[in-house]
Amino acid sequence: MLSSSPKQATRGLTLIEIAVVLVILGLLLMAAMPTVGTWMRNTQVRNTASSMLSGLAQARNEAIRRNIPVRFSLVSLTDSAVMNNTCAVAANGVSWVVSVRDPSSHCSYAPSNNPATDAADANNPLIVEASAGGVGGRNVVVAARLDDGTAAGGTVTFNGFGRVAEATPVRAIDVNNQTLGNDYRRLRIEIAPGGAARLCDMSVTSTTDPRNCATRVSIP
Fold it and tell me: Where are the beta strands (DSSP E) in 86-203?
C-alpha cells in the first residue's frame, strides 16, 4: 500500500517583507528619475534641432525646384504647440515655417498646392511646410544670430541656386534646454553661405571631431 506524503505548507510573504520590497523599488525609482528626466529633455532638444534642419533643407530644395526665393522662418506662437495666426518671426521661436512670403500673422494657412492660384490672395504666405515646435519641445529654447554673431535674426531665404540670399544671413541657430547644465545637450545648426546646413554639438571642443561646431560665437 502506497503511503501518501504530507503536503508541504505554502508560505506567503510577510508584511515586513512586502514593505522592504516596496522601499527598495522606491529607492531604485528615485535614483532613475534624474536620468530619465535628462534623457527626455535631451531628446526634445535633438528632435527640435533635427526638425529645423529638415525645414532648412526643404526650403532650399523648394527654392531650387521652383527657381524662386523661398524662406525658412523661426516663429513664436501664443501656444507653441498650436500653429495659428498668432505667429511672428522671432529669433527665439521654437516653431518654423517654410514659405514663399512672410508668414507673420498668417501661419494658419494650409500648405499651398496651387501657388499660381493661391498667390492671388495677398495674405496667403504660400506655405510649403510648417511645424509647431512646442508639440515635442516645450522645454527647449532657441536663439538665432546673424553672421556677425551679435544681431538676432529669424529668417533664412534661399535663392533659385540654393544659396543664402540675405547680405547678412542667419549664421547659427542654437537649440538648448531651458535648464542649463552639463547633463543637457547644446546643439547648433550652422548655415553656410552656399546654403548647406549642418548640426553640431557645442560641447565638443576637439576640432578633429566631426560633431565640432565651426562657429564659436557665443549665443546666449
Answer: 88-89, 95-99, 127-131, 140-146, 155-158, 170-177, 187-191, 197-201
Model confidence over 27-85: pLDDT tens digits?
666 655 557 667 788 888 999 999 999 999 999 999 999 999 999 999 999 998 999 99
| DSSP secondary structure of 154-171 | -EEEE-TTSSB--SS-EE
Task: Tell me the residue range of the domain where 69 lies.
Answer: 43-201
How many domains in the chain? 1
Q: In whole angstroms, what is the distance from residue 139 CA to residue 15 CA? A: 42
- Would 34 be classed as within a structural domain? no
Q: Please answer whether residues 97 and 125 qualify as being in contact, where contact means their C-beta atoms are separated by less than 8 angstroms.
A: yes
Domain membership flag for residue 52: yes
Radius of gyration of the chain (CA): 26
Asked if 137 and 48 count as a contact pair (C-beta separation under 8 A), the reply is: yes
Burial of 181 (0-12, 13-18, 19+ CB in 10 A): exposed
Taking each continuous run of H as one helix and of E as one strand, the counts in the chain are 2, 9
What CATH number is attached to the domain comprising 168?
Answer: 3.55.40.10
